[in-house]
Write a structure and sequence with these properties.
- α1 packs across α11 and α2 runs antiparallel to α3.
- This protein has a six-stranded mixed sheet with strand order 6-9-10-3-11-12, with helices on both faces. The chain has a four-stranded antiparallel sheet with strand order 2-1-4-5, with helices on one face.
- The chain is 64% helix and 10% strand.
- The chain is α/β, with parallel strands linked by helices.
- The radius of gyration is 36 Å and the shape is elongated.
- The chain has three domains: 325 residues, ABC transporter transmembrane region fold, CATH 1.20.1560; 158 residues, Rossmann fold; 78 residues, P-loop containing nucleotide triphosphate hydrolases (Rossmann fold, 3-Layer(aba) Sandwich).
- The chain has 22 helices and twelve strands.
Length: 595
């Protein structure tokens, strides 16, 4: 309970931080709306009594007070209506502010978390639950709290009024609604536990849905006729957790119907009691109407109060998923003593570096030691799964090693601020991003803070060989590329790769890493780039990963990785003379062309 109260407090703090003005307006309107129903019931009682008196006195007697009472009832009713509409408008505005605020928190946290989280399935479970609940749960807590305060105030006023009729009527009003609150508490916990347990299955359903509707799977889906197969997998996964959820809701509905029977019996009792007292002359017709309305309104308010309490309890269960995500720790940060990153002047040294992915027993990087000198072009080669891309992520400090060190000009990179250290690198990843933005914006994203843009963007595009293509587009560098939005132009995979290369060249970083930068290029484009590779990189230190050995032979040194360890290192000529792994891979590849 202490934990839930803490989550409740944190949620209200988020609501207040997101829109304090709208929160105050919401509370004020709720207080006003809690008083209006009692005022309306009392006015109706007085109106009915005055009309009854006037009827007994005869039609010739006109009572001006009746007219004013009718006007007062209409005015209070009108105020209640407009306050309801105004309250809805205020809540919508507050909800929008909170939704934007919560998405901001989620996005900020997501982009700051260590990349290694994306290698853990449990992270995706936490993320899925957080993104599902975060945009609206805190606002639900506020609305339930305001509804609770409004309902409680109105209920106390109505209960006090009913108590003047007879204390038993007030007790009945409260007693018949107690099963409802227990029901909501009980099934809120059941549904939360169920949905938390079903998160992996829900993610599986979402994945199958993406396979059926997404762009990337669409070609193989049609070519191999996989539509019905994945439709069946989606239906099976989707129904698995939905049917179990419906079973829980069905049980809850049956008990709610039984609870409703007791409420109807209570209303019947009060109707008989009030009717007898009216007939016997103990209470007037106006008082009869007032008590019946008060009891009916009291039933509504106690349901609102209990519903709000159980709603707060339910929200406190689910909001915990959001705070679980927001409380995830960033392990990649500057360790003490913190050192400011200076310009790259000498070398990067990897000392006895080892790394294992979560859940794996075999090391992906195993005791790797190597040195990269300023201005060198280093080629990193090896079979698939040798650890080349992982080594790049360690070098950029996207991952931290299990053991060993990386020294940047004799400084341990663990003492650098990660964001500042990463500015030393520009990378074309093997699975580079395709941004559905303008061609110029795609390149500019390589260094979003760079103010000297237009000329440098074009220079980077010329270096990657994509300038002529962009110039031929309808709006040139302002042409939207991709296929998601209107008035955009789709590119071939090779053209996208040139854009990615231009993006990396636009970034003014001393260290350039290219992971399979020519995988999708045609022979002419590949030859054009690598024949002037040293001019393109403009004296920067470069790490080139490629399976095409005709490209890596231009490197100053070649490092061969095998099973996560450095197997060989040297120039192309030295490795060919050694006749080791590199020699074997090179000769097998080149023999295909000799034939």
């Amino acid at each position: 309970m202490k934990q839930k109260l803490n989550l409740f407090k944190q949620s209200l703090q988020l609501v207040w931080e997101s829109a304090p003005g709208w929160a105050v307006a919401n509370i004020i309107l709720s207080v006003i709306r809690s008083i209006l129903p009692l005022l309306l019931v009392v006015l109706l009682k007085v109106l009915i009594d005055n009309i009854t008196t006037a009827v007994k006195a005869g039609p010739e007697i006109a009572d001006e007070s009746i007219i004013w009472l009718i006007v007062a009832v209409a005015v209070v009713y009108f105020i209640d209506e407009i306050s309801s509409d105004l309250s809805n408008w205020v809540r919508k505005n507050q909800s929008l502010k909170l939704e934007v605020y919560m998405y901001g928190l989620l996005h900020k946290k997501s982009i700051s978390l260590d990349l290694i989280n994306f290698e853990r399935p449990e992270y995706f479970d936490i993320l899925s639950r957080a993104t599902r609940e975060a945009p609206w749960r805190p606002n639900s807590i506020l609305n339930n709290l305001i509804s609770l305060l409004k309902g409680l105030a109105s209920l106390l006023l109505m209960t006090g009024l009913i108590f003047t009729l007879h204390w038993s009527a007030a007790v009945i009003l409260l007693a018949v609604n107690i099963p409802g609150i227990w029901l909501r508490f009980h099934y809120a916990a059941l549904l939360y536990d169920f949905q938390k347990k079903q998160t992996p299955e829900a993610r599986k359903s979402a994945y199958f849905n993406w396979l059926l509707t997404g762009d990337r799977p669409s070609r193989e889906l049609r070519l191999f006729g996989l539509g019905e197969y994945f439709t069946g997998l989606f239906r099976k996964s989707f129904l698995k957790h939905r049917e179990e959820e419906l079973l829980i809701i069905r049980k809850r509905t049956f008990i709610e119907m039984t609870s409703g029977l007791f409420k109807a019996a209570a209303l019947l009792f009060v109707l008989i009691f009030v009717a007898k007292r009216t007939v016997s002359g103990v209470i007037s017709l106006g008082e009869m109407a007032m008590f019946l309305l008060a009891f009916r309104q009291g039933m509504t308010y106690i349901k609102e109060v209990f519903g709000s309490v159980s709603g707060i309890y339910e929200d406190s269960l689910f909001i915990g998923d959001t705070f679980e995500f927001l409380d995830l720790k960033d392990n990649i940060k500057a360790e003490e003593p913190a050192v400011k990153v200076r310009d790259f002047n000498d070398k990067i040294v990897l000392e006895n570096l080892s790394f294992t992915y979560p859940g794996n027993r075999v090391k992906t990087i195993d005791n790797v030691s190597l040195q990269i000198n300023k201005g060198e072009i280093i080629a990193l080669v090896g079979p698939n799964g040798a650890g080349k891309s992982t080594l790049v992520r360690l070098l950029c400090r996207l991952y931290d090693p299990d053991s060993g060190k990386i020294k940047f000009d004799e400084c341990d990179i663990m003492n650098f601020d990660p964001a500042e250290y990463r500015k030393q690198f520009s990378v074309v990843f093997q699975d580079f991003m395709l941004y559905n933005l303008s061609a110029g914006e795609n390149i500019r994203l390589g260094d979003i803070e760079n103010q000297d843009q237009d000329s440098k963007i074009r220079s980077a595009a010329r270096s990657s060989g994509v300038d002529d293509l962009i110039a031929s587009l309808p709006e040139g560098y302002d042409t939207a590329i991709g296929n998601l939005f209107d008035d955009s132009r789709e590119l071939s995979w090779g053209e996208w790769q040139k854009i990615a290369l231009a993006r990396s060249l636009f970034r003014d970083a001393p260290f350039l890493i290219l992971d399979e930068p020519s995988g999708a290029l045609d022979a002419d484009a590949e030859y054009e780039i690598f024949s002037r590779f040293r001019d393109i990189i403009k004296g920067r230190t470069a790490l080139l990963i490629s399976h095409k050995f005709t490209n890596v032979s231009l490197a100053d040194r070649i490092i061969v990785l095998d099973k996560g360890a450095v197997a060989e290192a040297g120039t192309h000529e030295e490795l060919m003379i050694r006749e080791g792994i590199y020699y074997s891979m090179y000769t097998r590849q080149s023999s295909r062309f000799d034939k």
